[in-house]
Each structure stands twice: as C-alpha cells, then as structure tokens.
Amino acid sequence: MGKRLTQIATRTGDDGTTGLGDNTRVAKSSRRVQAMGDVDELNSQIGLLLCETLPDGVRALLVEVQHELFNLGGELSIPGYELLKPEALAVLDAALAEHNGRLPRLEEFILPAGTRAASLAHVCRTVARRAERAVVALGEGEPVNDTPRRYLNRLSDLLFVLARVLNRLDGGDDVYWKSERLRRGDAD
C-alpha cells in the first residue's frame, strides 16, 4: 500500500474547515464531521477495551470491528461512496446470536458496571449509540447509506452483550439495578 499521509499538520483546518475524502471542504461543525468524529471516538474506545484481557474470540471480533469502523468512517468522509458492506452486519448478527445465546435471560435492568473490561464495553456501547444518532442526524439532511446506521445500532447491542459476557469471565455476574419496583415487591 502506498503512503497515504505525508504531512499531519497541514494548517488547512485553521479556518474551521476540514477536507473530506472527495477533496471538498466542510465546516468542522457539520453533521458529517460530527458523525465521523463519533465513529473515530468509538474506534478509539474499542482500542482501549482491547488493552484488557479478553477471550481470544472476543478480541478477534473487536479487531475486525475496528477495521469495519475505519471503513464506516471512510464512507462517511466520501459522500455517496460505499465502503462498509452489508456482510459486516452479518458478522455482528452472528456474534450477537452466539454470545447472547450463552447468557441467562435478563430479568431486570443492569448497570453499566462490573469488571473493568465490562465497564469499558459499556462505554463503547454508549459511544456507539451516540455515533448512531449522529449518522441518523446526518441522514436527515443528506443521503447516507443504510448500512452505517444499521451497523452502529447492531454494534451497540453487541457491546451490551459482550459487557455481560465479560462480567462472567471469572464467575461474576451482571450488576443489577435496585429499582423501587423490586424493592416494593412489585416484580411480575
């Protein structure tokens, strides 16, 4: 692969604009740049999660997710272009089915807590939801392919499930919300 970045500090963004992949310039406050930034932050948070001790299958899955998020960000940076393929969504669906199938049914809401790895997965989940909202907002004003929105929605679900998986690595469990309903004994 050829060298893509020859200079990092170009100073061209000093005026409050940034260049997209199609060489157009847009305001750094644009919805497109917001969505790209949220996807970049999500990818960085997953990189932090990967610093933890994880099962090999989870690690490999998250590394693949990082590559797909890079594709998603690239797609957002080139209006009208498709880089994130529907097959990436199928990978998430399969992982969701596999990991969720091994977990006990939820009876109550859980807190974003537990082990460090599980808590980091919850942070990733919330950033994925924000990135999804940014892509939806972008789509309200400009054409955006369906796959990025669907991918982020499914990824946030997967990260929730992985947090539950990670809380169980050493015999742990979810951290359940102590709701007033349960405290009163109104549970169905």
Give a short summary of the structure.
This protein is mainly α and 188 residues long. The chain is built from six helices and two strands; from the N terminus they run ββαααααα.
Describe this structure in words.
The chain has 188 residues and is mainly alpha-helical. It is 58% helix and 3% strand. The chain has helices at 31-49, 56-77, 86-100, 116-141, 146-167, 180-184; strands at 17-19, 25-27. Strands 1-2 form a two-stranded antiparallel ribbon. Helix 1 packs antiparallel against helix 2 (56-77), helix 3 (86-100) packs parallel to helix 5 and helix 4 (116-141) packs antiparallel against helix 5 (146-167). The longest helix is centred in the C-terminal third of the chain and has 26 residues, at 116-141.
Helices and strands, with pairings:
Elements: E1 17-19, E2 25-27, H1 31-49, H2 56-77, H3 86-100, H4 116-141, H5 146-167, H6 180-184
Antiparallel strand pairs: 1-2
Helix pairs in contact: 1-2, 1-4, 3-5, 4-5
Q: Main attributes?
A:
188 residues; mainly alpha; Hypothetical Protein Ta1238, Chain: A; Cobalamin adenosyltransferase; corrinoid adenosyltransferase activity; nucleotide-binding
Q: Give the overall silhouette.
A: elongated
Number of helices, where a helix is a run of at least 4 consecutive DSSP H or I residues: 6
* Helix content estimate: 55-70%
The CATH superfamily is Cobalamin adenosyltransferase-like
Supply the CATH class.
Mainly Alpha
